[in-house]
Amino acid sequence: MGLDKLDTIRKLLAKAERAATAAEAETYTAKAMELMARHGVDAALLAVARPGSDRIGPQRVAMEDPYSAGKARLLGWTATALGCRWVLHGARGRKVAAVTVFGHESDRQRVELLYTSLQLQASTQLVRVRPPARGESVAAYRRSWLHGFAVEVHRRLTDAEERAAGAARSEAATGGPSVALVLADRREQVDRAYAAAFPRLASARRSVLSGSGFTAGARAGERADLGFGGLGAGNDRHRALGA
Fold first, then answer.
1. How many angstroms separate the CA atoms of 107 and 232, rounded?
2. Is the bond preceding 66 in cis, omega lying within 30 degrees of 0?
3. What are the percentages of helix, strand and coil residues in the chain, rounded to 5?
4. How many whole angstroms separate alpha carbon 128 and alpha carbon 142?
5. Domain DUF2786 spans what residues (predicted)?
6. Which label site among 16, 31, 234, 239 has the fewest CB atoms less than 10 Å from its CB?
């Protein structure tokens, strides 16, 4: 993505974060989501014309409590929707130390930009949400709320990516590169590089959440703005959840 396009998306994200009403935020959301998805397709097509310009690699992001496991899912599912894979580090119980996002540089850039805003949006709302039923654990409700938020964000991002790819296919000139083939090839490249970089990953156990906040979190995810280093050593337990 060009610097001017990145700046436009950042401004839309900032406006959505400061919006006074849900309707105002949704206006910025729709435009930012459209730009983010379309720029992903543009970057993929540009990389075909400039081999080696959009290298595949890792980017490790530290997770912070509270709700580090939920934040890790939000980052990982955002990464999956935007053409990347992901790995958990130090996953123990309800805590995650870090997440490595693995993919093309332009897609990792999109993931970083979007997750930074989504994590802020979610954290701002999390401190206010409370379970409707007396006696339910606030922490359990918030964990399930964040899970619902991440699920809905993933759904919306996936839909936006598919719409952008479809629009690009319709606009492609005869004789140009096939958008569908370019995007499929990019994912295959990432899958091969990911398998080579992480040949002995263990499978993560699925999370079991007891709180009742999933639906409320999903509604918040539906409103969220979607504007569109080395791995290190040590004794981290790696968990693969990318699809």
1. 21
2. yes
3. 60, 10, 30
4. 10
5. 6-42
6. 234
Yes or no: say if 86 and 162 are a contact pair by the CB < 8 Å rule: no
Task: Return the structure tokens found at 171.
Answer: 């606009």
Q: What is the pLDDT along the chain (243 residues), one digit of tens a residue?
A: 566 777 898 899 888 888 777 678 778 877 887 899 998 999 999 999 898 999 999 999 999 999 999 999 999 999 999 999 999 999 998 899 999 999 999 999 999 989 998 898 888 888 888 998 888 899 999 999 999 999 998 999 999 999 999 988 888 655 567 899 999 999 999 999 999 999 988 655 555 555 555 667 677 767 675 554 323 333 333 344 443
CA distances 143 to 99, 169, 210, 213, Å, are 18, 39, 9, 8
Q: Give me the sheet containing 202-203, strands edge to edge.
A: 56-62, 98-104, 85-89, 238-240, 202-203
Q: In which element (H, E) is residue 239 found?
A: strand 238-240
Strand segments, DSSP code E, in 55-172 are 56-62, 85-89, 98-104
Cα–Cα distance, 157 to 93 (Å, whole number): 28
Q: Would you tell me how many other CB atoms lie within 10 Å of the CB of residue 237?
A: 12
Residue 47 contacts residue 91 (beta carbons within 8 Å) = no
User: Token digits for 34?
Assistant: 């459209």
pTM, 2 dp: 0.81
Length of the chain: 243
